[in-house]
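Supplementary Methods, section 5.1.

A reviewer requested that the exact input to the structure prediction be made available. We therefore reproduce it here, unchanged from the version used in the analyses.
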Amino acid sequence: MNRIASRRLLGVALAGVSFLTVAAASAGEVSVWVWDPNFNGAAMREAAARYTPTHPDVTINIDDSASQDDIRAKLQTQLLAGSTEGLPDIVLIQDDVAQKYLQSFPGAFEPLSDAIDMSAFAQYKVAAATLDGKSYSLPFDSGVTGLFYRSDILEEAGFTGEDLQNITWDRLIEIGTEIKAKTGKPLLDLDLADSGLIRMMMQSAGAWYFTEDGSLSIVDNAPLRKALETYASFYQADLVKPVSGWAEYTGAFTSGEVAMVPVGVWITGTIKANADQSGLWGVAPIPRLDVEGSVNASNQGGSSWYVLASSDNKEEAIDFLKTVWGGDVDFYQKILIEQGAVGSLLAAREGEAYQATDPFFGGAPVWQNFSQWLSEIPSVDYGTFTAEVDSAVQAQLPTIIEGGDLDAALQAIQDQAQQQMQ
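The structure derived from this sequence is encoded token-by-token as follows.
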């Protein structure tokens, strides 16, 4: 790990020193750190409830009281200090930062591919936690994306959901132009401080900000260039409602101000919270870039479970993950229904909940569709500096959407990212 990366991790870590209050688990007690008690925490509690009745000698202690940032700070504080005191047995880590942990702290996490069959999971999730031929995570929730749309707005403009099947982003711009002309509604809302749509487009083409050896891939990155061009085209065609922050972002599509939102499946709960809109929504596959190799499937977000190598209960922790998270298909049906969690275990797609239709989305088998798209997502290497490159991309977006020189913008992204990575 270079000096700047070390200082960056240390700065975040020191902020979490006061949170180091969780004692190490004793024998037979598997401790888990997880954020979001209503989603990740609830799913882990259900998993524990399924495991402990047949393993009475094991107790699963779940701490879901901290935020994701606090958990990162606690974990980094200990790992930077080289101390294992207070670390949990299992911790949840977001996929796009996983390689930063694995590469910055070699030996800190237990490889799981020796004990768990990784071919049973969506391979793009496995790839995110694979280093030097070993996989270190039990893949959890997918960020598989979809194009959520208001079917009533679409129909008012003379289109149906069939018109959104397996299309390119360029075609979506054409459709959006007609929607705006006939309904007055912008196609979608975008926040210039969030480059998630650009990353979504890149991954659909199996590309990221880096090459396989970790080197920056910006200036000559064809999918990135096309993604930025497409992003700018939305603005230049006057199809965007500009927003700032999460509340404005979600408010625009849940209130019907815009026609569509391309986003991860985890947004489903937010959309369905508006019960009066039942039957007015549909979900289509994400559009693809008009570049070689791009598909109508991508990812945004998602996290996975890791076992700390310092754990005194590694055997129990791994068996717990393998038994429930790695093999209990019925478990995945329950967390889909109750938490809206689309897991990464491929066999779960055959379960009853995944086959069910949803009247909110016009009676479509939305979970079956999402699980099919999940299996088609290209694998990419998120590298260790995704956040730094994201920042560089966001700095150039105002210039790009105004029609600025794209070559100059790509070079500026490259230069800023390179400086932050040194």
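Residues 386-401 form the longest helix (16 residues). These observations are discussed further in the main text.
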